[in-house]
Amino acid sequence: MLAAAALVLTGCAGGAGTAGAASAAGAAAARTPDRAATAGPAAPAPDPVDWQACGTGFDCATVEVPVEYGSPRGERIELAVTRHRATDPDRRIGSLFVNPGGPGVSATEMVERIDVAHGTGPFSAEVVARFDVVGVDPRGVGDSEAVRCLTDEQRAAQAAEDRDPTIPGGKRFGRLLTDARTFTHGCLDHQSRTFLASLSTDNVARDLDQVRAALGEEQITFYGASYGTVVGPVYATLFPERVRQMVIDGPVDTDLWQNDPLRLLDDVEVSNERTLDAWFETCRAEGTAVCSFGDGDPEAAFDALVRQLEKRPLQVQPVDGLTPGGPLDGAAALEGVRAAAGNQALWPLLTAGLIGAEQGNGTLLHAMVSSVTVAPFGGPFATLQEPHTAVRCADWPEVDRLSDHHRAARTIAERHDRLGGRAAYSALSCALWPVDNRDRFTDVLDGAGAPPVLVVGGRLDNVSPHHWAEAMAERLDDAVLLTREGVGHTSYGTSGPCVDDAVDAVLIDGILPEDGTVCDVPPATTKPLAAPAGAGA
């Protein structure tokens, strides 16, 4: 299995200051009334959580919530909840709710990655000591009645289909439309219309508040990454007085999310391309003694390699723990490159993979496709596609005019981007979505009345461009922006002590860094790692 090398931060520009401690929450709440009234009739108070031990330090449970908050005493669903108990209960602050993104990534699995014995996991030892870390799988995700729209056979057949990187969407439009129809009809075969219409992020936020009440907490602390940065502002907008502290990492532009999803997806595609361009620039700058791929012209060598692989795919043999094997054509190579270019810790592997493929060994590039590839807003694409799409279609305004999708695809094609092919028509299923979310939440997500929010944005993020972080910090009623230099999506736990210490200070003590703080990271390198033995052509 591929593993990202650790990044060590070398500096933190900008002084540390206080922009509101925990006491600010009460004052903010006093200024702004609870906007939860917009949620409709009040749901019945949930029963206290009935925890069952599910590992050392872990408890698991389910919490029942209404399918529709407009009919709070109607049909109900069960949400999967996992917590890791605070390791220092005498200093326990409360519950830290987490959402890792997607949409479609399991929050319970994120919590389950906490490993106190080995000192690893998504949160620092001090955060794990001071908080019960709580993961709630959003409705339609993970163990909370995950959305399914395809049979295993259909999923396998689509994964095995040949794609042409020169065609927008990878296939002729007629075939893309057929796939979208198969997908959307399958969603109705496996789920009710009511359930599909309920998968919106405002309902996810209401669900979190039901879990908060079931835990007996007056307030929650929240950390959200990627799509979780939509969940957080929705919660802070609906329930500002119930937020103790909040950090959002790798933020989404919530205005685009709510109002212009095709432009949002175009921004993602541009960000993907910029990270690949950064790899090319670094490879050239480091010189052939470090990055020999392309002998000084990596762009030309890359384009030639993709054409060659598309003409004559490499047959990759299985390698235990690395890749299941299979053909590596140009389209597949682009998927692997897209993922690896977006994380500078993987750049050495990317260099080795490209050199290996040139020499007839596609093992590393194939491993990147099968093990590292991520969907927009995070998560393994193959396992997240169905809930990912269902949540997006529930949240987004109607994009049912095919002409809008054609126009967006032309915009991408006219840029001649190397990684643009798959991005075209990536929201086509929403054009055919079979249910309407009639009560879509459209309020500006400003979190008015909540304590100051820490917004962490990467300078070169392959999914969330930095201007999204700037927009988020501006849109929120009270926020501080911290910028991480370098390439990568989200920053906490991967970028060194400058970011980690700042996030921990907010979560634990409510102490924010000075607005505009910049955290440096070591310069990226394309110097290749040794490639593993694998199949040749």
From TrEMBL:
Residues 422-519 form the Peptidase S33 tripeptidyl aminopeptidase-like C-terminal domain. Pfam families: Abhydrolase_1, Abhydrolase_4. GO terms for molecular function: hydrolase activity. Keywords: Hydrolase, Signal. Residues 1-21 form the signal peptide. Residues 127-265 form the AB hydrolase-1 domain. Belongs to the peptidase S33 family. This is Alpha/beta hydrolase fold.
